[in-house]
């Protein structure tokens, strides 16, 4: 692109205190005004560290060894104060609670603009603009700490937009959003790109809605830039390498790659879902492509009830009811997914399930214990719970201490503790970081650490609140494969809250859909996603991409499938070496 770059990085390397390995290694990069850039990579590859270098947190607030130069709009980040960079570059953090200070939503959005010294009239205009763009007008008077995780993330984006920065960095901005809200945020960012000529730098794992918007993809691996180019160049020319690394390649790109490998040629590599959908439709209608049908296998469970909710109503305060007449039985060996839009009551339902909250009316039975009649410490002996925000359950000085804490409190012998801790740390892939402080880990690694602290006690019921947050494909697959092993080998029961419909389709044996505190759908993911395709959209949920293709193109002969693994095993047969067998590591 012509002109001077708005971001100019040369020879950037950085290491955190007490570590020998560089978090960033010899990064050289230019980003030009108005670009929409995706930075992608596995958990711990250096993405967030790079973002903190860009906005001056490194070196002004975070210690470590920094070399090289970072110039933002003509300003060297090492030579100017952070408040001088604030008008140039904004950042939405992975965890919105890291940057929310004010009591009310509109005050939070006004905070940054006020700090810039603008007059009241300008501040009001900016706040109104940001509220409108993020569709937050209805909650502008609400208390910020009462918001759902997704609502907090929208407020964080709005507070940055109100300052109209030249560059906006978003670190996993849609992690806590429901699928339709994710698409909404992406649409909003594209509108803003046209309106205010802002340069967007987005760090993200879930590329389904994002891939169509981006101009350039930067793939990071072990602190270095591995690939840098257009989406078409990166996702097709380096497909196998990216899959091997654990990059979450959207299913419609996988489908297009399969068709290309089968000899169905196009003038250009398709990036949008619309392009791939149209291509497949033409191939099916012309008879050039025939896809066999497949009957999904339904998993049998043993019929033993481990959790039962009867007529459960719940209110945090009088006149504000959250759950309405919840009736739900969970059987041993189920992998139950609970899904719904932000603020619909999923986490409240989960907390009632574990006994952290008591129903206002009705009863909750866990392993034949009524949560109203038993203490929480008695109920949770056989329950493992991983919070939506892993930082809420991490408090020790090292990974190793964190994992052994619960076992020490329960009085296990040193031999048992050592054996269980070693197994848990290896299982979640943190063996090399066992001596590290938990908060030196990436968000995805902290999520895996939280899982390890739960696994170490061999719980019979495992509750996962948004376990996919910040996870790359390999880490996510390892975690959920482990959950299935616990079901098959130890008769565990998994109850998971998630916004990731691909994960639900691939791993869950049952899905329950919540809307405004009520159960509205309940069944096998294949049936719910295919038969309730239109209703899910009205509930701010989107079936997996392959399921959407299946429903949209069923009349043309596309088989009824709801996840990529089912599709690839049925359609591609034994050609799985095309999908991730080549390694660059």
Give a description of the structure.
The protein is α/β, with parallel strands linked by helices and 585 residues long. Helix content is 37%, strand content 21%. It contains 22 helices and 20 strands. The strands form 4 sheets. Strands 6-7-8-3-9-10 form a 6-stranded mixed beta sheet, with helices on both faces. A 6-stranded mixed beta sheet has the order 16-17-18-13-19-20, with helices on both faces. Strands 2-1-4-5 form a 4-stranded antiparallel beta sheet, with helices on one face. α4 (105-115) packs parallel to α6. The chain is globular. The chain starts with 6 loop residues before the first strand and ends in a 14-residue tail after the last helix.
Key traits:
20 strands, 585 residues, six-stranded mixed beta sheet, alpha/beta, disordered C terminus
Structural class: alpha/beta
Uncertain parts? 573-585
Q: Roughly what is the average pLDDT, rounded to an integer?
A: 87
* Cα distance spanning the termini: 32 Å
Q: Strand percentage, roughly?
A: 15-25%
The number of distinct β-strands equals 20
């Amino acid at each position: 692109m012509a002109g001077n770059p708005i971001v100019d990085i040369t020879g950037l390397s950085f290491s955190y205190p007490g570590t020998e390995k560089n978090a960033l290694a010899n990064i050289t990069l230019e980003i030009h005004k108005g670009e929409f850039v995706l930075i992608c990579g596995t958990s711990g590859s250096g993405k967030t560290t790079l973002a903190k270098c860009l906005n001056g947190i490194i070196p002004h607030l975070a210690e470590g060894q920094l070399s090289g130069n970072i110039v933002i709009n003509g300003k060297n980040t090492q030579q100017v104060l952070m408040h001088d960079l604030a008008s140039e570059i904004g950042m939405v953090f992975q965890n919105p609670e890291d940057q929310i200070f004010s009591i009310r939503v509109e005050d939070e959005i006004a905070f940054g603009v006020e700090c810039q010294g603008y007059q009241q009239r300008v501040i009001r205009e900016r706040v109104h603009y940001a509220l409108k763009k993020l569709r937050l007008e209805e909650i502008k008077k609400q208390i910020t700490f009462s918001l759902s995780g997704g609502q907090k993330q929208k407020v964080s984006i709005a507070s940055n937009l109100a300052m109209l920065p030249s560059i906006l960095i978003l670190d996993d901005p849609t992690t806590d959003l429901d699928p339709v809200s994710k698409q909404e945020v992406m649409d909003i960012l594209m509108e803003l790109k046209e309106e205010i000529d802002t340069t967007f730098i987005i760090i993200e794992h879930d590329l389904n809605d994002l891939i169509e918007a981006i101009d350039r993809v930067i793939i990071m691996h072990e602190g270095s830039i591995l690939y840098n180019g257009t989406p078409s160049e990166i996702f097709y020319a380096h497909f196998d390498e990216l899959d091997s690394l654990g990059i979450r390649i959207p299913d419609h790109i996988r489908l297009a790659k399969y068709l290309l490998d089968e000899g169905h040629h196009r003038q250009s590599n398709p990036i949008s879902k619309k392009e791939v959908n149209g291509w497949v439709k033409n191939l099916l209608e012309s008879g050039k492509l025939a896809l066999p049908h497949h009957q999904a296998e339904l998993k049998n469970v043993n019929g033993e009830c481990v959790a039962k909710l009867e007529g459960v109503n719940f209110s945090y305060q009088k006149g504000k009811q959250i759950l309405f007449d919840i009736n739900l039985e969970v059987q041993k060996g189920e992998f139950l997914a609970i899904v719904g839009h932000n603020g619909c009551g999923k986490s409240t339902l989960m907390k009632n399930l574990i006994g952290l909250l008591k129903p206002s009316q009705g009863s909750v039975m866990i392993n034949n214990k009524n949560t109203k009649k038993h203490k929480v410490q008695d109920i949770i002996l056989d329950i493992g719970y991983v919070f939506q925000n892993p930082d809420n359950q991490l408090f020790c000085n090292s990974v190793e201490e964190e994992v052994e804490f619960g076992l020490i409190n329960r009085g296990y012998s040193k031999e048992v503790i050592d054996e269980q801790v070693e197994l848990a740390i290896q299982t979640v892939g943190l063996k090399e970081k066992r001596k590290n402080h938990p908060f030196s880990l990436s968000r995805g690694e902290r999520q895996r650490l939280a899982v390890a602290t739960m696994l170490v006690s061999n719980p019979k019921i495992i509750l996962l609140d948004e376990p996919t947050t910040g996870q790359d494909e390999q880490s996510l697959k390892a975690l959920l494969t482990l959950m299935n092993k616990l079901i098959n080998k130890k008769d565990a029961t998994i109850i998971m809250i998630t916004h990731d419909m691909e994960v639900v389709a691939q791993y869950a044996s049952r899905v329950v859909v919540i809307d405004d505190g009520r159960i509205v759908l309940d069944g096998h993911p294949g049936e719910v996603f295919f038969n309730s395709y239109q209703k899910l959209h009205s509930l701010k949920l989107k079936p997996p991409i392959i399921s959407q293709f299946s429903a949209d193109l069923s009349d043309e002969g596309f088989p009824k499938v709801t996840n990529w693994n089912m599709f690839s095993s049925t359609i591609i047969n034994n050609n799985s070496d095309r999908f991730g067998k080549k390694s660059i590591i």
